[in-house]
Amino acid sequence: MRLLGMRMDGSIPLKLLSRLADQFNSAIAHAAYHLRHGIGPARGLLDAMSREIDLRLSGLSFGSTRLMFAGNIAPDTTGESPMEGALEQIFDVLSSPSPEAIRDLVTVIGVPATKALSEMLGTLEKQNIGAELTWPAPNSKVYHWGGSLDAVRNAHSKLSVFEHMKPESVTLSGTVTDLKESGAVYIRSGSSKYKITYNKQQYQHIQQYSLGMKVGFKAMKYVRRDPLTDTEYATYKLITD
Known about the structure:
The chain has 241 residues and is α+β, with helices and mostly antiparallel strands. It is built from 7 helices and 10 strands.
């Protein structure tokens, strides 16, 4: 994380460093948990995820202030790395050009991760500090976002709109009519048909289901209202233990 501003000359106030590190860790840990379970963590469970990703400050470079972080990218029992998955989605959220795309990504990383990320951007904006994030991923792809105070302000403005989304936990019962490895399961209940999307980190859980099986899925329901037609649209994200 490269910080750009009048006071960012290779040093950083400890209070600001502590706040940014806490908000950055919270965003990644919440996103990683949500990718695995489809819901935010209950009290105490985020600490376990934080220990698993093991995010650390590994260095401070001079010139402008560069904070170097390191963490655990080892895969879990599903074969996926919680740290990698969270970072990929966070870069997608920061780089997303439209509110509609951001809304979809918020359902993937969760509202708590979005709030923590927005708060980190707000901390930077309040101090008139620009930021640049770079991550050389294990697959050799280099993720990059930002590089100016305007980038921080723009991303904060877009994300703050979604900080207060209030999805609802529901149970959907019916018969499985279709299973998509790309990330969706369809069920029918009477005349109603539901599409429930899931993350690749939840694929192992989905493998136990088959066509024609009667099921009861827990899901997070996200509602969007079209202001022109005053119509509500609901999307559902799978919740897994």
